[in-house]
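Q: Is it fine to ask for two folds in a single conversation?
A: Yes, each is treated on its own. Send the first.
Q: Here.
A: Result:
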Amino acid sequence: MAGGLLLVLSAPSGCGKTTILKQVMRDLPGLVFSVSHTTRQPRPGEINGEHYHFVETAVFAAIRNRQPTGFLEWAEVHGNMYGTSVEEVERHQGAGHDVVLDIDVQGMAQVRQRAEPVTIFIAPPSLAELERRLRGRGTESESTIALRLNNARKELACAGAYDYLIVNDRLDRAVEALRSIIIAERCRQRRGPDGQQGGWCG
Protein backbone atom coordinates (compact mmCIF):
# COMPACT_ATOMS: atom_id res chain seq x y z
CA MET A 1 0.00 0.00 0.00
CA ALA A 2 1.43 3.34 -1.06
CA GLY A 3 0.58 6.97 -0.40
CA GLY A 4 -0.37 8.23 3.03
CA LEU A 5 0.46 6.68 6.38
CA LEU A 6 -1.49 3.79 7.84
CA LEU A 7 -1.91 4.46 11.56
CA VAL A 8 -3.18 1.77 13.94
CA LEU A 9 -4.46 2.85 17.36
CA SER A 10 -5.30 0.34 20.07
CA ALA A 11 -6.26 0.78 23.70
CA PRO A 12 -8.22 -0.93 26.46
CA SER A 13 -11.78 0.30 26.82
CA GLY A 14 -11.95 3.41 29.01
CA CYS A 15 -8.48 4.77 28.18
CA GLY A 16 -9.82 7.83 26.36
CA LYS A 17 -8.63 6.80 22.89
CA THR A 18 -11.69 8.20 21.10
CA THR A 19 -11.41 11.56 22.86
CA ILE A 20 -7.69 11.82 22.10
CA LEU A 21 -8.17 10.89 18.45
CA LYS A 22 -11.05 13.33 17.93
CA GLN A 23 -8.96 16.23 19.21
CA VAL A 24 -5.98 15.32 17.04
CA MET A 25 -8.11 14.85 13.93
CA ARG A 26 -9.78 18.21 14.54
CA ASP A 27 -6.45 20.06 14.76
CA LEU A 28 -4.24 18.15 12.32
CA PRO A 29 -5.16 18.21 8.60
CA GLY A 30 -4.83 15.25 6.26
CA LEU A 31 -6.16 12.55 8.61
CA VAL A 32 -9.12 10.33 7.76
CA PHE A 33 -10.78 7.66 9.86
CA SER A 34 -11.35 4.30 8.23
CA VAL A 35 -15.02 3.33 8.50
CA SER A 36 -15.32 -0.38 9.26
CA HIS A 37 -17.85 -2.84 7.89
CA THR A 38 -20.04 -4.66 10.40
CA THR A 39 -22.92 -7.12 10.42
CA ARG A 40 -24.46 -5.75 13.61
CA GLN A 41 -27.56 -3.62 13.54
CA PRO A 42 -27.20 0.19 13.73
CA ARG A 43 -27.72 1.74 17.14
CA PRO A 44 -29.90 4.85 17.57
CA GLY A 45 -28.18 7.83 15.96
CA GLU A 46 -25.66 5.79 13.96
CA ILE A 47 -25.43 6.65 10.26
CA ASN A 48 -24.53 4.11 7.59
CA GLY A 49 -21.23 5.06 5.95
CA GLU A 50 -20.30 7.45 8.76
CA HIS A 51 -20.11 5.30 11.87
CA TYR A 52 -19.96 1.93 10.10
CA HIS A 53 -20.82 0.34 6.79
CA PHE A 54 -23.74 -1.81 7.94
CA VAL A 55 -23.98 -4.93 5.75
CA GLU A 56 -25.70 -8.32 5.74
CA THR A 57 -23.71 -11.36 6.82
CA ALA A 58 -23.62 -12.71 3.25
CA VAL A 59 -22.19 -9.41 1.96
CA PHE A 60 -19.54 -9.38 4.68
CA ALA A 61 -18.57 -12.98 3.87
CA ALA A 62 -18.29 -12.16 0.16
CA ILE A 63 -15.91 -9.27 0.87
CA ARG A 64 -13.90 -11.37 3.34
CA ASN A 65 -13.48 -14.15 0.78
CA ARG A 66 -12.30 -11.70 -1.88
CA GLN A 67 -8.66 -11.88 -0.78
CA PRO A 68 -6.23 -10.23 -1.05
CA THR A 69 -8.52 -7.27 -1.85
CA GLY A 70 -11.22 -7.93 0.75
CA PHE A 71 -10.51 -7.06 4.37
CA LEU A 72 -7.18 -5.87 5.72
CA GLU A 73 -8.29 -7.30 9.05
CA TRP A 74 -11.51 -8.75 10.43
CA ALA A 75 -12.86 -10.32 13.59
CA GLU A 76 -16.00 -11.73 15.17
CA VAL A 77 -17.04 -9.93 18.34
CA HIS A 78 -20.06 -11.06 20.36
CA GLY A 79 -21.55 -12.78 17.33
CA ASN A 80 -21.10 -9.81 14.99
CA MET A 81 -18.46 -9.41 12.29
CA TYR A 82 -16.22 -6.34 11.91
CA GLY A 83 -13.70 -5.66 9.16
CA THR A 84 -11.46 -3.00 7.61
CA SER A 85 -11.86 -2.72 3.84
CA VAL A 86 -8.63 -2.84 1.80
CA GLU A 87 -10.36 -0.84 -0.93
CA GLU A 88 -11.34 1.98 1.42
CA VAL A 89 -7.87 2.22 2.99
CA GLU A 90 -6.13 2.25 -0.39
CA ARG A 91 -8.54 4.87 -1.76
CA HIS A 92 -7.73 7.27 1.09
CA GLN A 93 -3.99 6.57 0.96
CA GLY A 94 -3.96 7.02 -2.80
CA ALA A 95 -5.46 10.47 -2.30
CA GLY A 96 -2.53 11.33 -0.01
CA HIS A 97 -4.44 11.06 3.27
CA ASP A 98 -3.14 9.38 6.39
CA VAL A 99 -5.59 6.67 7.43
CA VAL A 100 -6.40 5.90 11.07
CA LEU A 101 -7.57 2.43 12.11
CA ASP A 102 -9.15 2.04 15.54
CA ILE A 103 -8.68 -1.70 16.11
CA ASP A 104 -7.65 -4.15 18.85
CA VAL A 105 -4.37 -5.98 19.30
CA GLN A 106 -5.51 -8.98 17.23
CA GLY A 107 -6.47 -6.67 14.38
CA MET A 108 -3.10 -4.93 14.57
CA ALA A 109 -1.34 -8.28 14.17
CA GLN A 110 -3.43 -9.05 11.08
CA VAL A 111 -2.66 -5.65 9.54
CA ARG A 112 1.08 -6.17 10.09
CA GLN A 113 0.91 -9.31 7.97
CA ARG A 114 -0.35 -7.28 5.02
CA ALA A 115 1.06 -3.77 5.42
CA GLU A 116 3.58 -1.62 7.31
CA PRO A 117 1.47 0.43 9.71
CA VAL A 118 2.60 2.88 12.36
CA THR A 119 1.26 1.26 15.53
CA ILE A 120 0.34 3.24 18.64
CA PHE A 121 -0.91 1.85 21.94
CA ILE A 122 -2.73 4.09 24.42
CA ALA A 123 -2.56 2.91 28.02
CA PRO A 124 -4.04 4.08 31.32
CA PRO A 125 -1.67 5.22 34.10
CA SER A 126 -2.65 2.07 36.02
CA LEU A 127 -5.37 -0.57 36.17
CA ALA A 128 -6.65 1.09 39.35
CA GLU A 129 -7.10 4.37 37.46
CA LEU A 130 -8.77 2.55 34.58
CA GLU A 131 -11.22 0.96 37.00
CA ARG A 132 -11.94 4.39 38.51
CA ARG A 133 -12.68 5.81 35.04
CA LEU A 134 -14.93 2.90 34.11
CA ARG A 135 -16.89 3.27 37.34
CA GLY A 136 -17.07 7.02 36.81
CA ARG A 137 -19.04 6.48 33.61
CA GLY A 138 -21.95 5.21 35.68
CA THR A 139 -23.06 3.05 32.75
CA GLU A 140 -21.16 -0.18 33.39
CA SER A 141 -22.40 -3.16 35.41
CA GLU A 142 -20.05 -4.94 37.81
CA SER A 143 -19.73 -7.87 35.42
CA THR A 144 -18.93 -5.53 32.51
CA ILE A 145 -16.29 -3.69 34.54
CA ALA A 146 -14.70 -7.00 35.53
CA LEU A 147 -14.69 -8.13 31.88
CA ARG A 148 -13.16 -4.87 30.65
CA LEU A 149 -10.44 -4.95 33.31
CA ASN A 150 -9.60 -8.56 32.48
CA ASN A 151 -9.39 -7.68 28.77
CA ALA A 152 -7.25 -4.65 29.63
CA ARG A 153 -4.69 -6.85 31.42
CA LYS A 154 -4.36 -9.01 28.30
CA GLU A 155 -4.12 -6.00 25.99
CA LEU A 156 -1.53 -4.24 28.15
CA ALA A 157 0.64 -7.34 27.92
CA CYS A 158 0.82 -6.72 24.15
CA ALA A 159 1.76 -3.04 24.38
CA GLY A 160 5.44 -3.80 23.80
CA ALA A 161 4.64 -5.02 20.27
CA TYR A 162 3.63 -1.48 19.22
CA ASP A 163 5.90 1.20 17.78
CA TYR A 164 4.74 3.82 20.27
CA LEU A 165 3.20 3.88 23.74
CA ILE A 166 1.16 6.81 25.04
CA VAL A 167 0.14 6.81 28.69
CA ASN A 168 -3.03 8.86 29.08
CA ASP A 169 -2.35 10.33 32.50
CA ARG A 170 -3.35 13.80 31.31
CA LEU A 171 -5.52 14.36 28.25
CA ASP A 172 -3.63 17.40 26.93
CA ARG A 173 -0.29 15.58 27.09
CA ALA A 174 -1.73 12.46 25.43
CA VAL A 175 -3.20 14.56 22.62
CA GLU A 176 0.12 16.31 22.05
CA ALA A 177 1.98 12.98 22.09
CA LEU A 178 -0.24 11.51 19.37
CA ARG A 179 -0.02 14.70 17.33
CA SER A 180 3.78 14.67 17.63
CA ILE A 181 4.02 11.03 16.56
CA ILE A 182 1.99 11.67 13.42
CA ILE A 183 4.04 14.75 12.51
CA ALA A 184 7.30 12.86 13.10
CA GLU A 185 6.16 9.99 10.86
CA ARG A 186 5.18 12.48 8.16
CA CYS A 187 8.65 13.97 8.35
CA ARG A 188 10.14 10.49 7.87
CA GLN A 189 8.31 10.45 4.52
CA ARG A 190 9.75 13.90 3.74
CA ARG A 191 6.33 15.46 4.11
CA GLY A 192 5.43 18.58 6.01
CA PRO A 193 3.71 18.57 9.42
CA ASP A 194 0.41 19.18 7.61
CA GLY A 195 0.96 16.05 5.53
CA GLN A 196 1.75 17.85 2.27
CA GLN A 197 4.55 16.63 0.06
CA GLY A 198 7.73 18.69 -0.13
CA GLY A 199 7.24 20.55 3.15
CA TRP A 200 10.28 21.23 5.28
CA CYS A 201 10.17 19.57 8.68
CA GLY A 202 12.10 21.32 11.35
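Q: Second one now.
A: Result:
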Amino acid sequence: MTRFLLAILLFIVTTVSSIATPIRIKDLVEFDGVRGNDLIGYGLVVGLNGTGDGIRNSPFTEEIMANILERLGVNVNGEQFRPQNVAAVIVTSTLPPFSRAGSQIDITVSAIGDADSLMGGTLVMTPLTAADGEIYAVAQGSVIAGGASVAGDAASVVEGVPTSGIVPSGARVEREVEFELSSLETMRLALRTPDFTTAGRIEAAINTAYGRSVAVMLDAGTVALNLAATREPSPAHAVFRIENILVEPESRARVVVDQRSGTIVMGEDVRISRVAVAQGNLTLRIEETPLAVQPNPFAEGETVVLPRTQVEIEEAQGNGLAEIAGGTSLSEVISGLNALGVSPGDMIDILNAINASGALHAELIVR
Protein backbone atom coordinates (compact mmCIF):
# COMPACT_ATOMS: atom_id res chain seq x y z
CA MET A 1 0.00 0.00 0.00
CA THR A 2 2.84 2.37 0.84
CA ARG A 3 4.40 1.81 -2.57
CA PHE A 4 1.04 2.44 -4.23
CA LEU A 5 0.58 5.76 -2.46
CA LEU A 6 4.17 6.78 -3.14
CA ALA A 7 3.61 6.01 -6.83
CA ILE A 8 0.54 8.25 -6.82
CA LEU A 9 2.52 11.00 -5.08
CA LEU A 10 5.36 10.74 -7.60
CA PHE A 11 2.87 10.95 -10.47
CA ILE A 12 1.17 13.98 -8.97
CA VAL A 13 4.45 15.77 -8.26
CA THR A 14 5.58 15.11 -11.83
CA THR A 15 2.26 16.37 -13.19
CA VAL A 16 2.35 19.49 -11.04
CA SER A 17 5.91 20.26 -12.15
CA SER A 18 4.92 19.98 -15.80
CA ILE A 19 1.90 22.27 -15.27
CA ALA A 20 4.03 24.93 -13.61
CA THR A 21 6.24 25.05 -16.70
CA PRO A 22 5.26 27.72 -19.26
CA ILE A 23 3.08 26.31 -22.04
CA ARG A 24 2.62 27.51 -25.60
CA ILE A 25 -0.59 29.40 -26.24
CA LYS A 26 -1.43 26.98 -29.06
CA ASP A 27 -1.69 24.20 -26.44
CA LEU A 28 -4.01 26.23 -24.22
CA VAL A 29 -6.54 27.72 -26.64
CA GLU A 30 -8.57 27.08 -29.76
CA PHE A 31 -8.43 29.74 -32.45
CA ASP A 32 -11.86 30.92 -33.54
CA GLY A 33 -12.78 29.36 -36.90
CA VAL A 34 -9.77 27.03 -37.02
CA ARG A 35 -11.55 23.74 -36.38
CA GLY A 36 -12.58 20.52 -38.07
CA ASN A 37 -16.01 19.51 -39.37
CA ASP A 38 -17.67 16.16 -38.75
CA LEU A 39 -18.69 14.09 -41.75
CA ILE A 40 -20.99 11.07 -41.98
CA GLY A 41 -22.15 8.71 -44.69
CA TYR A 42 -24.01 5.46 -45.28
CA GLY A 43 -22.48 2.79 -47.48
CA LEU A 44 -21.70 -0.88 -48.09
CA VAL A 45 -18.71 -3.09 -47.42
CA VAL A 46 -18.37 -5.93 -49.93
CA GLY A 47 -16.06 -8.89 -50.30
CA LEU A 48 -16.71 -10.40 -46.85
CA ASN A 49 -16.15 -14.12 -46.40
CA GLY A 50 -19.71 -15.01 -45.41
CA THR A 51 -19.65 -12.66 -42.42
CA GLY A 52 -21.96 -10.01 -43.85
CA ASP A 53 -25.49 -9.00 -42.91
CA GLY A 54 -28.32 -11.49 -42.86
CA ILE A 55 -30.86 -10.24 -45.37
CA ARG A 56 -33.77 -11.37 -43.21
CA ASN A 57 -32.51 -9.25 -40.29
CA SER A 58 -31.12 -6.36 -42.36
CA PRO A 59 -33.40 -5.84 -45.42
CA PHE A 60 -31.99 -2.35 -46.01
CA THR A 61 -28.69 -3.94 -47.04
CA GLU A 62 -30.39 -5.69 -49.95
CA GLU A 63 -32.15 -2.50 -51.01
CA ILE A 64 -29.04 -0.35 -51.17
CA MET A 65 -27.09 -3.11 -52.91
CA ALA A 66 -29.83 -3.39 -55.54
CA ASN A 67 -29.74 0.40 -56.04
CA ILE A 68 -25.97 0.34 -56.55
CA LEU A 69 -26.20 -2.47 -59.10
CA GLU A 70 -28.96 -0.66 -60.97
CA ARG A 71 -26.79 2.46 -61.22
CA LEU A 72 -24.11 0.23 -62.71
CA GLY A 73 -26.56 -1.08 -65.29
CA VAL A 74 -27.47 -4.41 -63.62
CA ASN A 75 -31.21 -5.03 -63.15
CA VAL A 76 -31.94 -7.24 -60.14
CA ASN A 77 -35.65 -6.48 -59.72
CA GLY A 78 -37.66 -9.64 -59.12
CA GLU A 79 -34.52 -11.71 -58.58
CA GLN A 80 -33.73 -13.78 -55.51
CA PHE A 81 -30.89 -11.58 -54.37
CA ARG A 82 -29.37 -13.05 -51.20
CA PRO A 83 -25.75 -11.90 -50.78
CA GLN A 84 -23.90 -12.96 -47.65
CA ASN A 85 -20.70 -11.05 -48.24
CA VAL A 86 -22.18 -7.54 -47.95
CA ALA A 87 -22.61 -5.39 -44.83
CA ALA A 88 -24.27 -2.01 -44.35
CA VAL A 89 -22.02 0.46 -42.52
CA ILE A 90 -21.91 4.00 -41.19
CA VAL A 91 -18.82 5.94 -42.29
CA THR A 92 -17.57 8.79 -40.11
CA SER A 93 -14.67 11.18 -40.43
CA THR A 94 -13.50 14.69 -39.56
CA LEU A 95 -12.64 17.25 -42.20
CA PRO A 96 -9.52 19.03 -40.87
CA PRO A 97 -9.35 22.83 -41.06
CA PHE A 98 -7.98 24.29 -44.29
CA SER A 99 -8.39 20.97 -46.14
CA ARG A 100 -8.19 21.49 -49.87
CA ALA A 101 -9.91 19.64 -52.69
CA GLY A 102 -8.01 16.50 -53.54
CA SER A 103 -6.47 15.95 -50.10
CA GLN A 104 -7.10 12.64 -48.36
CA ILE A 105 -8.42 11.99 -44.85
CA ASP A 106 -8.86 8.90 -42.67
CA ILE A 107 -12.29 7.37 -42.11
CA THR A 108 -13.91 4.98 -39.62
CA VAL A 109 -16.30 2.25 -40.75
CA SER A 110 -18.84 0.68 -38.36
CA ALA A 111 -21.39 -2.04 -39.11
CA ILE A 112 -25.04 -1.24 -38.35
CA GLY A 113 -26.57 -4.64 -39.19
CA ASP A 114 -25.88 -8.13 -37.84
CA ALA A 115 -22.59 -8.64 -39.69
CA ASP A 116 -20.07 -10.78 -37.79
CA SER A 117 -16.92 -9.15 -39.13
CA LEU A 118 -15.70 -6.52 -41.60
CA MET A 119 -12.25 -8.06 -41.98
CA GLY A 120 -11.14 -8.36 -45.60
CA GLY A 121 -13.96 -6.17 -46.87
CA THR A 122 -13.87 -3.20 -49.24
CA LEU A 123 -15.91 -0.06 -48.76
CA VAL A 124 -17.81 0.91 -51.91
CA MET A 125 -17.82 4.57 -52.98
CA THR A 126 -19.67 6.44 -50.23
CA PRO A 127 -20.42 10.19 -50.18
CA LEU A 128 -19.77 11.94 -46.85
CA THR A 129 -21.97 14.86 -45.88
CA ALA A 130 -21.67 17.53 -43.19
CA ALA A 131 -24.36 19.08 -40.96
CA ASP A 132 -25.50 21.32 -43.83
CA GLY A 133 -26.32 18.28 -46.01
CA GLU A 134 -23.64 19.04 -48.60
CA ILE A 135 -21.17 16.39 -49.79
CA TYR A 136 -17.61 17.28 -48.79
CA ALA A 137 -15.77 14.00 -49.40
CA VAL A 138 -16.11 10.60 -51.04
CA ALA A 139 -14.84 7.46 -49.29
CA GLN A 140 -13.69 4.14 -50.72
CA GLY A 141 -11.04 1.57 -49.89
CA SER A 142 -10.08 -1.60 -48.05
CA VAL A 143 -11.23 -1.84 -44.44
CA ILE A 144 -8.69 -2.64 -41.74
CA ALA A 145 -10.59 -4.24 -38.83
CA GLY A 146 -9.07 -4.41 -35.38
CA GLY A 147 -10.42 -7.71 -34.12
CA ALA A 148 -10.95 -11.39 -34.84
CA SER A 149 -13.91 -13.72 -34.61
CA VAL A 150 -13.73 -17.53 -34.54
CA ALA A 151 -16.79 -19.78 -34.20
CA GLY A 152 -17.36 -23.51 -34.00
CA ASP A 153 -20.41 -25.75 -33.67
CA ALA A 154 -20.78 -25.22 -29.92
CA ALA A 155 -18.72 -22.15 -29.06
CA SER A 156 -17.37 -18.92 -30.46
CA VAL A 157 -14.63 -16.48 -29.46
CA VAL A 158 -14.50 -12.78 -30.35
CA GLU A 159 -11.39 -10.70 -29.69
CA GLY A 160 -11.48 -6.96 -30.18
CA VAL A 161 -14.21 -5.37 -32.32
CA PRO A 162 -14.22 -6.98 -35.79
CA THR A 163 -17.38 -5.06 -36.76
CA SER A 164 -15.52 -1.74 -36.80
CA GLY A 165 -12.46 -0.68 -38.74
CA ILE A 166 -10.62 2.16 -40.41
CA VAL A 167 -9.54 3.06 -43.91
CA PRO A 168 -6.34 5.15 -43.82
CA SER A 169 -6.57 8.01 -46.32
CA GLY A 170 -9.82 6.41 -47.41
CA ALA A 171 -11.69 9.58 -48.33
CA ARG A 172 -10.85 12.31 -50.81
CA VAL A 173 -12.00 15.87 -50.19
CA GLU A 174 -14.30 17.12 -52.95
CA ARG A 175 -15.54 20.40 -51.44
CA GLU A 176 -13.69 22.97 -49.34
CA VAL A 177 -15.14 24.71 -46.31
CA GLU A 178 -15.56 28.40 -47.04
CA PHE A 179 -13.38 30.13 -44.44
CA GLU A 180 -11.13 33.00 -45.41
CA LEU A 181 -8.62 33.57 -42.64
CA SER A 182 -6.98 36.39 -44.56
CA SER A 183 -10.17 38.51 -44.43
CA LEU A 184 -10.50 38.44 -40.64
CA GLU A 185 -9.90 41.63 -38.67
CA THR A 186 -10.47 40.15 -35.22
CA MET A 187 -10.11 36.65 -33.81
CA ARG A 188 -11.16 35.09 -30.53
CA LEU A 189 -9.00 32.68 -28.56
CA ALA A 190 -11.14 30.13 -26.68
CA LEU A 191 -9.42 28.62 -23.64
CA ARG A 192 -9.74 24.84 -23.39
CA THR A 193 -9.96 25.21 -19.59
CA PRO A 194 -11.62 28.56 -18.80
CA ASP A 195 -9.84 30.47 -16.04
CA PHE A 196 -9.64 34.21 -15.41
CA THR A 197 -6.01 34.08 -14.30
CA THR A 198 -4.88 32.12 -17.35
CA ALA A 199 -6.86 34.40 -19.69
CA GLY A 200 -5.31 37.46 -18.07
CA ARG A 201 -1.82 36.01 -18.44
CA ILE A 202 -2.46 35.27 -22.12
CA GLU A 203 -3.61 38.86 -22.66
CA ALA A 204 -0.55 40.23 -20.87
CA ALA A 205 1.86 37.92 -22.71
CA ILE A 206 0.52 38.86 -26.14
CA ASN A 207 0.53 42.58 -25.42
CA THR A 208 4.06 42.35 -24.01
CA ALA A 209 5.28 40.50 -27.09
CA TYR A 210 3.92 43.26 -29.39
CA GLY A 211 4.60 46.18 -27.06
CA ARG A 212 1.08 47.54 -27.45
CA SER A 213 -2.54 46.64 -26.80
CA VAL A 214 -3.36 43.80 -29.16
CA ALA A 215 -5.34 41.34 -27.00
CA VAL A 216 -8.26 41.95 -24.61
CA MET A 217 -9.67 39.44 -22.12
CA LEU A 218 -13.44 39.22 -22.56
CA ASP A 219 -14.19 36.54 -19.95
CA ALA A 220 -12.65 33.49 -18.29
CA GLY A 221 -12.71 31.54 -21.55
CA THR A 222 -12.21 34.14 -24.28
CA VAL A 223 -9.43 36.52 -25.31
CA ALA A 224 -10.15 38.82 -28.27
CA LEU A 225 -7.31 39.51 -30.67
CA ASN A 226 -7.14 42.61 -32.88
CA LEU A 227 -5.37 41.30 -35.98
CA ALA A 228 -5.05 44.76 -37.53
CA ALA A 229 -3.18 46.05 -34.48
CA THR A 230 -0.55 43.31 -34.82
CA ARG A 231 0.69 44.92 -38.06
CA GLU A 232 1.61 41.52 -39.42
CA PRO A 233 1.64 40.85 -43.20
CA SER A 234 -1.40 38.58 -42.78
CA PRO A 235 -3.57 37.05 -40.03
CA ALA A 236 -1.73 33.77 -40.57
CA HIS A 237 1.56 35.46 -39.63
CA ALA A 238 -0.08 36.86 -36.49
CA VAL A 239 -1.37 33.43 -35.45
CA PHE A 240 2.06 31.94 -36.18
CA ARG A 241 3.72 34.38 -33.81
CA ILE A 242 1.06 34.34 -31.07
CA GLU A 243 0.61 30.58 -30.79
CA ASN A 244 4.27 30.12 -29.82
CA ILE A 245 4.22 32.63 -26.95
CA LEU A 246 4.78 30.91 -23.60
CA VAL A 247 2.27 31.34 -20.77
CA GLU A 248 2.13 29.74 -17.33
CA PRO A 249 -1.48 28.45 -16.93
CA GLU A 250 -3.42 28.47 -13.69
CA SER A 251 -5.96 25.90 -12.55
CA ARG A 252 -8.44 25.47 -9.72
CA ALA A 253 -7.67 23.20 -6.79
CA ARG A 254 -9.18 19.85 -7.68
CA VAL A 255 -9.28 16.31 -6.34
CA VAL A 256 -10.19 13.75 -9.02
CA VAL A 257 -11.30 10.32 -7.81
CA ASP A 258 -11.85 7.32 -10.08
CA GLN A 259 -13.82 4.77 -8.08
CA ARG A 260 -13.41 2.00 -10.66
CA SER A 261 -9.62 1.93 -10.63
CA GLY A 262 -9.06 3.46 -7.19
CA THR A 263 -6.98 6.30 -8.65
CA ILE A 264 -6.78 9.60 -6.76
CA VAL A 265 -5.12 12.69 -8.23
CA MET A 266 -4.79 15.98 -6.33
CA GLY A 267 -3.34 19.29 -7.42
CA GLU A 268 -0.71 21.17 -5.45
CA ASP A 269 -3.20 23.88 -4.40
CA VAL A 270 -5.44 21.47 -2.47
CA ARG A 271 -5.75 22.51 1.16
CA ILE A 272 -7.50 20.83 4.10
CA SER A 273 -8.59 22.54 7.29
CA ARG A 274 -7.96 21.01 10.70
CA VAL A 275 -9.88 17.74 10.83
CA ALA A 276 -9.67 14.40 12.66
CA VAL A 277 -9.98 11.11 10.75
CA ALA A 278 -10.68 7.66 12.22
CA GLN A 279 -10.67 4.64 9.96
CA GLY A 280 -11.31 0.97 10.66
CA ASN A 281 -12.57 -2.21 9.02
CA LEU A 282 -15.52 -4.35 10.03
CA THR A 283 -15.28 -8.07 9.19
CA LEU A 284 -18.30 -10.40 9.28
CA ARG A 285 -17.73 -14.15 9.15
CA ILE A 286 -20.53 -16.69 8.68
CA GLU A 287 -19.63 -20.40 8.66
CA GLU A 288 -22.07 -23.22 8.02
CA THR A 289 -21.20 -26.70 9.48
CA PRO A 290 -24.35 -28.83 9.18
CA LEU A 291 -24.50 -32.00 11.32
CA ALA A 292 -26.04 -35.21 9.98
CA VAL A 293 -27.89 -37.31 12.63
CA GLN A 294 -28.65 -40.93 11.72
CA PRO A 295 -30.97 -43.38 13.57
CA ASN A 296 -29.55 -46.31 15.56
CA PRO A 297 -28.82 -49.58 13.72
CA PHE A 298 -31.94 -51.59 12.94
CA ALA A 299 -34.09 -48.72 14.22
CA GLU A 300 -36.82 -47.04 12.26
CA GLY A 301 -36.30 -43.45 11.26
CA GLU A 302 -34.67 -41.15 8.72
CA THR A 303 -31.40 -39.28 8.60
CA VAL A 304 -31.83 -35.68 9.77
CA VAL A 305 -29.49 -32.80 8.97
CA LEU A 306 -29.18 -30.31 11.81
CA PRO A 307 -27.99 -26.80 10.88
CA ARG A 308 -24.93 -25.44 12.66
CA THR A 309 -24.08 -21.78 12.06
CA GLN A 310 -21.21 -19.77 13.52
CA VAL A 311 -21.34 -15.97 13.24
CA GLU A 312 -18.43 -13.70 14.19
CA ILE A 313 -18.06 -9.95 13.94
CA GLU A 314 -14.54 -8.59 14.13
CA GLU A 315 -13.50 -4.98 13.94
CA ALA A 316 -9.91 -4.54 12.81
CA GLN A 317 -7.85 -2.29 15.02
CA GLY A 318 -6.65 0.71 13.00
CA ASN A 319 -4.13 3.31 13.97
CA GLY A 320 -6.67 5.26 16.01
CA LEU A 321 -7.62 8.85 15.38
CA ALA A 322 -5.37 10.82 13.06
CA GLU A 323 -5.47 14.61 13.07
CA ILE A 324 -4.66 16.67 9.98
CA ALA A 325 -3.54 20.20 10.77
CA GLY A 326 -5.12 23.20 9.14
CA GLY A 327 -3.70 24.44 5.83
CA THR A 328 -2.31 21.03 5.01
CA SER A 329 -0.60 20.80 1.62
CA LEU A 330 -0.58 18.01 -0.93
CA SER A 331 2.39 16.08 0.42
CA GLU A 332 1.08 16.33 3.98
CA VAL A 333 -2.33 14.97 2.92
CA ILE A 334 -0.73 11.96 1.27
CA SER A 335 1.53 11.35 4.26
CA GLY A 336 -1.40 11.62 6.66
CA LEU A 337 -3.58 9.17 4.74
CA ASN A 338 -0.62 6.85 4.26
CA ALA A 339 -0.03 6.83 8.04
CA LEU A 340 -3.51 5.38 8.49
CA GLY A 341 -2.59 2.43 6.27
CA VAL A 342 -5.82 2.76 4.30
CA SER A 343 -6.62 1.15 0.97
CA PRO A 344 -7.49 3.22 -2.11
CA GLY A 345 -11.19 2.46 -1.62
CA ASP A 346 -11.07 3.59 2.01
CA MET A 347 -9.11 6.66 1.01
CA ILE A 348 -11.90 7.61 -1.41
CA ASP A 349 -14.45 7.31 1.40
CA ILE A 350 -12.25 9.45 3.67
CA LEU A 351 -11.94 12.18 1.03
CA ASN A 352 -15.72 12.16 0.52
CA ALA A 353 -16.24 12.47 4.27
CA ILE A 354 -13.70 15.31 4.56
CA ASN A 355 -15.41 17.11 1.69
CA ALA A 356 -18.83 16.62 3.29
CA SER A 357 -17.51 18.10 6.55
CA GLY A 358 -16.43 21.24 4.69
CA ALA A 359 -12.75 20.78 5.51
CA LEU A 360 -11.64 20.06 1.92
CA HIS A 361 -10.97 23.35 0.12
CA ALA A 362 -10.96 22.02 -3.42
CA GLU A 363 -13.34 20.82 -6.10
CA LEU A 364 -14.00 17.10 -5.60
CA ILE A 365 -14.70 15.25 -8.85
CA VAL A 366 -15.86 11.63 -8.48
CA ARG A 367 -16.05 9.45 -11.57
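Q: Anything structural to flag on that second result?
A: Two points. Confidence is low (pLDDT under 50) at residues 1-19. The helical segments are 2-20, 59-71, 196-210, 227-230, 235-242, 330-339, 344-356.
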